[in-house]
């Protein structure tokens, strides 16, 4: 029995004994409870019920741990852990310095994928064979494994559809700016800051112990040494965890090629999930299954378009508008902006702003989108932003709660895939998104 279970058991016994003692006393004296006794019995029973619920939960958790241990012993989990340690040591000897194992690599080196291949003779799926993998939930995507650590399932013969995501998808960097969190619930409740007041000021020592307003003449707050009160207002917000998912078909022959499966998962399925996630964080309507994105949260600031000053080239006002939005985030939002989200078309227009001698103010041929700062702020080029608008803000005041970072499942039990020798690879993620302080963000009109 664990220490926690023993403690909860003793606590439950104590509360029950307290209630039992009071009940026995009243019964022995052939009378009803007094008001004080009734209150005490009710409190003891309430505490006993709380302890019973906690005890049941602890016992259930303990049973799950025991079951996991039993299953691990049955399938040789200790050996698997030793093998994992050996792989990491081999990766270090190989000199691999990377820090991220992709979802695709995690899947093709997982027991789920290996078990699926073991069901096929020689690791190749015949046309009439059924395909069904166990779901693989990817909770941690940052490891230090070697890219060649997949053993017999890994091959350097990348004859599959091997194209980089840059061919089809935009770079995704917004997740890097927001605050990352996790949750184990299906909805997240948090406090959203809607306003605050800072009344901090120098305060003199009290010259009287009389309360403010007493006496003639009345005692002033300064005479009483009263300190000013600051504060902030909040509203409770509940945001549900949403599911983002999509799938793609593959042939059964391709399914036997670990390199090709990894390519499809990494360069299409994973990137597609992240692309839609970025769209939701910026433009989600909050209706139906949409996140409540930045563009639809009330309380954000606005910065109107700025006309081009005399003597400046066309488009110069766009740069000024972004700078003024940064100031609004600092003064009215009491925050420090850490990024600018802008549509590629607007970023192109800013890159091309130059003086009469052809000198570029911001971008230019030598500039690199996403690394060249604008007014000292990183630039996030995103199609999620509306053309003609940009967002300047402290994106740390937005939180992305990961419920399930990624899950990959393979099956031929879809439509007529079984008779067509096809399988579906499904990828999905679950997350919630919230804006903790809307005033830390400013929508900039560029046109």
- Total individual domains: 2
Level-2 CATH architecture of the largest domain: 2-Layer Sandwich
Order of helices and strands: HHHHHEHEEHEEHHEHEHEEEEE
Rg from Cα = 31 Å
In helices, the fraction of residues equals 25-40%
> How many angstroms does the end-to-end distance come to?
69 Å
CATH topology description of the largest domain:
Major capsid protein gp5 fold
State the secondary-structure class: alpha/beta
CATH class of the largest domain: Alpha Beta
Largest sheet: 5 strands, mixed
**Average of per-residue pLDDT values:** 80
Number of strands: 12
Q: Are there runs of 5+ residues with pLDDT below 50, and where?
A: 71-81, 91-99, 139-168
Task: Assign an overall shape.
Answer: flat
Q: What's the helix count? A: 11
CATH homologous superfamily descriptor of the largest domain: Major capsid protein gp5
Q: In what range is the share of β-strand residues?
A: 15-25%
Descriptive report:
- It is built from eleven helices and twelve strands.
- It starts with a helix and ends with a strand.
- It is flat, with a radius of gyration of 31 Å.
- The longest helix is centred in the first third of the chain and has 40 residues.
- Helix 1 runs antiparallel to helix 2.
- By secondary structure, the chain is an alpha/beta fold.
- The chain folds into two domains: 72 residues; 328 residues, Major capsid protein gp5 fold (2-Layer Sandwich).
- The strands form three sheets. Strands 1, 2, 5, 10 and 11 form a five-stranded mixed sheet that branches.
């Amino acid at each position: 029995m664990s220490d926690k279970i023993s403690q909860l058991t003793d606590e439950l016994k104590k509360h029950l004994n307290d209630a039992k003692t009071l009940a026995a006393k009243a019964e022995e004296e052939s009378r009803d409870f007094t008001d004080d006794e009734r209150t005490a019995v009710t409190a003891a029973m309430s505490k006993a019920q709380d302890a019973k619920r906690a005890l049941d939960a602890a016992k259930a958790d303990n049973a799950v741990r025991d079951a996991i241990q039993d299953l691990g012993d049955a399938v040789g989990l200790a050996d698997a852990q030793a093998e994992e340690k050996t792989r990491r040591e081999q990766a270090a000897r190989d000199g691999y310095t990377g820090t991220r194992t992709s979802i695709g690599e995690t899947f093709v080196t997982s027991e789920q994928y290996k078990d699926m291949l073991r069901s096929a003779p020689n690791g190749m799926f015949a046309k009439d064979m059924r395909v069904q993998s166990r779901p693989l939930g990817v909770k941690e995507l940052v490891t230090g494994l070697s890219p060649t650590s997949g053993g017999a399932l890994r091959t350097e013969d990348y004859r599959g559809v091997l194209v980089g995501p840059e061919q089809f998808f935009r770079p995704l960097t917004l997740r890097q700016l927001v605050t990352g969190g996790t949750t184990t619930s299906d909805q997240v409740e948090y406090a959203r800051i809607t306003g605050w007041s800072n009344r901090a000021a120098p305060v003199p020592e009290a010259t009287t112990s009389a309360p403010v307003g007493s006496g003639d003449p009345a005692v002033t707050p300064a005479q009483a040494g009263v300190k000013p009160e600051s504060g902030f207002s909040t509203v409770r917000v509940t945001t549900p965890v949403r599911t983002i998912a999509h799938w793609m078909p593959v042939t059964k022959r391709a399914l036997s090629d670990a390199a090709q499966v990894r390519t499809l998962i990494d360069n299409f399925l994973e990137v597609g999930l992240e692309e839609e996630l970025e769209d939701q964080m910026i433009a989600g309507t909050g209706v139906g299954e949409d996140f409540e994105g930045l563009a639809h949260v009330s309380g954000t600031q606005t910065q109107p378009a700025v006309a081009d000053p005399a003597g400046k080239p066309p488009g110069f006002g766009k740069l000024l508008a972004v700078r003024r939005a940064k100031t609004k985030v600092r003064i009215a939002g009491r925050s420090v902006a850490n990024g600018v989200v802008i549509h590629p078309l607007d970023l192109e227009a800013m890159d091309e702003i130059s003086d009469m001698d052809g000198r570029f103010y911001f971008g230019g041929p030598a500039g690199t989108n996403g690394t060249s700062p604008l007014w000292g702020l990183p630039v996030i080029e995103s199609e999620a932003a509306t053309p003609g608008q940009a967002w300047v803000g402290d994106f740390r005041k937005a939180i992305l709660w990961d419920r399930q970072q990624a899950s990959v499942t393979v099956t031929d039990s879809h439509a007529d895939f079984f008779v067509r020798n096809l399988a579906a690879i499904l990828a999905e993620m679950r997350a919630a998104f919230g804006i903790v302080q809307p005033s830390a963000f400013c929508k900039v009109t560029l046109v």
